[in-house]
Write a sequence for this structure.
């Protein structure tokens, strides 16, 4: 074919006036059509089959008892994550400290709380009141200064939040520690050479850089925990999963109620994924030469490309856009 | 003679069974530029790192302007200082690394202002004004709000120099400041350093740039196998070395 030669000649004289014809990808088209057909079939099955009970889904999706359960799930997740990551960060710093006793205590904690299944830990905390009727503060094996009834201190809600947080802390500790280890040791050396105080070295220099690898892993954990809160149904707490069970035991619409729960879990995780994206951008500052576009920017860009394509502009003229 | 700005005396340092510094003595007078040359592995970096106590030495002492960096003297005993006090004393010593080690998540301006404010507790206004001045001095006025990754290697190293100077240190240590740079960027960094030297900054520079040593140094020190083999004015050490080891090294690098 002589096309390359022709292109070469003309490109030299008037590249700007040429029209670019995009390469064709028939394979992509076929795959796209197949997926579209499958999707249409799935939607059809979902919408037309009365077994899905959409009217019931609609009726219960914003039912006050369901909304309360969603809120409780959100609260449990927030408590579990915030307390879990606070304790996890402390554990990670202990693990990285130069004091052997602190480091081994943190190691022991992670070992214990990662090894025992969450459901077992939850039941354990729930029944702690039975194990220790009184919780007293004082000298070990010696006199107690004051004591409280454990039933007062650890109600089912506290037990659930505590159980989730303590379990989460073990994983958070490893994520945070991994983040710190991912920071170039030269950073700490430079901070030390500049005489920056130790705490400031950790929180101003190391942690923000560690966040780049902590955030994606933490996002995973949070989304895991949103769904993980469903295990506290064994403690008969009114979180989302328990609540829909209560409702379908009453009205018998199992599928519809499970759909209600599924839709809410989808909504929560979608919101969290969006938040994660923006947090990642925040901590990516300065670490990449250019920031990745936000979802909103991406949509705008796609639209503007479409508009430009309609106007048939040659691609070479589009140099102002990256 | 007045107290030397840097006084390194009988310094020994080992890593396990490997003795890296074997009795090093070095005095640097205020305003003087000392260039250290020597083969790879001879202990040049270890010596610089010992001077600002990034490495603990096994024997001997290092004093900056008459004050020990990592220790407090009482009678004939040296007491090791706590980390907090060592960090405070270290702000008297600027350090410029081969690989810059700028903080990538902070802007150029934040890189420079961080230590004077957090380590020395100086008022932010004063430090900000000084930063503007220093960035101008290293030719980077326009880059104050850029992030390090957006700069060339030579620009990053000049920021690192400004960052070290912002502490108003008594001495600035440079460990091969141009070795990580593309050849065409070496000149801009050396020019900044030469201007500093002319301005009277006390400097100790480890470098393989013999031209810089010849032009800028007051004293050239040749190190080999953990010892200072010879030292003197550049004309003497570089052109009429008294030792075979110096001659052998110079014949390789020149
Ligand atoms: N942390 C360490 N642990 C063990 N050995 C080390 C350590 N740091 C340096 N060394 C050894 O000490 C010796 C001196 O190292 P140093 O970095 O001071 O040499 P240098 O003169 O700066 O060399 P170069 O010109 O290659 O930078 C080398 O043999 C090196 O392998
Ligand atoms: Mg070195």
């Amino acid at each position: 074919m002589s096309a390359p030669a022709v292109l070469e000649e003309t490109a030299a004289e008037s590249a700007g006036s040429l029209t670019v014809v995009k390469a064709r990808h028939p394979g992509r088209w076929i795959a796209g059509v197949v997926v579209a057909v499958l999707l249409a079939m799935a939607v059809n099955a979902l919408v037309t089959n009365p077994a899905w009970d959409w009217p019931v889904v609609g009726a219960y999706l914003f039912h006050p008892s369901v909304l309360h359960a969603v809120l409780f799930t959100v609260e449990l997740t927030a408590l579990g994550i915030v307390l879990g990551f606070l304790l996890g960060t402390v554990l990670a710093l202990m693990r990285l400290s130069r004091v052997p006793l602190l480091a081994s205590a943190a190691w022991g904690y992670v070992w214990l709380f990662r090894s025992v299944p969450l459901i077992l830990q939850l039941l354990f905390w729930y029944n702690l009141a039975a194990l220790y009727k009184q919780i007293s503060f004082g000298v070990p094996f010696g006199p107690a200064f004051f004591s409280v009834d454990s039933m007062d201190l650890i109600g089912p809600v506290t037990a659930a939040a505590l159980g989730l947080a303590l379990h989460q802390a073990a994983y958070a500790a490893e994520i945070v520690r991994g983040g710190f280890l991912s920071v170039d040791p030269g950073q700490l050396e430079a901070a030390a050479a500049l005489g920056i105080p130790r705490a400031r070295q950790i929180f101003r220099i190391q942690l923000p850089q560690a966040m780049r690898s902590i955030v994606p892993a933490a996002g995973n954990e949070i989304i895991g925990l949103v769904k993980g809160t469903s295990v506290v149904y064994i403690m008969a707490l009114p979180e989302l999963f328990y609540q829909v069970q209560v409702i379908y035991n009453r009205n018998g619409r199992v599928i519809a109620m499970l759909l209600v729960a599924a839709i809410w879990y989808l909504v929560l995780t979608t919101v969290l994924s969006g938040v994660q994206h923006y947090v990642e951008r925040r901590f990516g500052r300065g670490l990449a030469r250019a920031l990745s576009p936000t979802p909103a920017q991406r949509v705008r860009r796609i639209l503007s490309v479409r508009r430009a394509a309609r106007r048939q502009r040659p691609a070479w003229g589009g140099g102002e856009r990256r | 003679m007045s107290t030397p700005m840097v006084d390194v005396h009988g310094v020994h340092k080992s890593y396990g069974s490997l003795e890296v510094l074997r009795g090093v003595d070095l005095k640097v007078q205020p305003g003087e530029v000392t260039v250290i040359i020597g083969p790879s592995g001879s202990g040049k970096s270890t010596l610089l790192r010992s001077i600002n106590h990034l490495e603990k030495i096994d024997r001997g002492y290092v004093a900056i302007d008459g004050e020990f960096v990592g220790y407090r003297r009482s009678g004939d005993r040296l007491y090791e200082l706590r980390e907090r006090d060592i960090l405070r004393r270290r702000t008297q010593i600027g350090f410029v690394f081969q690989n810059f080690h700028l903080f990538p998540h902070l802007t150029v301006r934040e890189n420079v202002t961080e230590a004077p404010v957090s380590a020395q507790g100086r008022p932010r206004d004063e430090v900000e004004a000084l930063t503007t001045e220093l960035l101008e001095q290293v030719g980077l006025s326009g880059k104050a709000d850029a992030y390090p990754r957006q700069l060339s290697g030579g620009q990053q190293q000049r920021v690192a120099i400004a960052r070290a100077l912002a502490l108003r240190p008594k001495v600035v240590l440079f460990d091969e400041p141009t070795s990580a740079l593309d050849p065409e960027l070496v000149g801009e960094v050396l020019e900044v350093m030469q201007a500093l030297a002319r301005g009277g900054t006390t400097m100790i520079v480890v470098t393989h740039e013999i031209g810089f040593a010849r032009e800028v140094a007051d004293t050239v020190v040749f190190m080999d196998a953990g010892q200072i083999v010879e030292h003197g004015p550049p004309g003497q050490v570089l052109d009429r070395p008294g030792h075979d080891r110096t001659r052998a090294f110079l014949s390789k690098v020149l």
